[in-house]
Predict the 3D structure of the following.
Amino acid sequence: MGWPLAPRAKWLIDSGMRKGTPREDFEHVVTAYGRHRSMETAAAYLMLLDPRGVVRWRHNGPMDEEAFAGLSCQTAALLN
């Protein structure tokens, strides 16, 4: 499963995500912390943002091996 986040960290992440999302779309946006079984079969629009809020990776549709590999690669690049 994912790593635990302090409540303050979740609040900061969620607040940052909301900045770039129109208020009318709030009910359609969820921030996932860690890997969830339901994400493996769900179709979604996913984005990875860098610390400045720039989109570094995006995917639309079911999360398959190719998409996960792209996300993993971009995440590793941002963490290094």
